[in-house]
Amino acid sequence: MQQFPNTYQGFNWALLHLRDVYAPNVLLAFHVSVWSTSVDVGSSHDPSLDAAGIGARTGAFAAESGAVLAGPGTSTYDLIFTDGLDRDAGFYKYAQADPNRWWDRLNLAYPNFQRWELWLANASQAAGRKPIFVWQIPLGNQYFQTQNNIPGHYQDNRAEYFFSHLEELRDTGIVALLFGGGGANVTTFTDADNDGITNPPAFCSSDGISSGQVCNNHPSTVADDDGGFIRMSAEQYYAHPLPLGVMVSTPGGALRPQVAPPTSDTGEPSVALEVDLGASSIDPAVAAPGQDVKLRQNTIANTDATVRVDFELVDARGQQVFQTQVPDQRVLLGSVMSTSTTFTVPGDLADGRYTLKVGVLSNDGTTQYVRSEAAGTLIIR
Question: Would you say residue 12 has pLDDT above 70?
Answer without folding.
Answer: yes
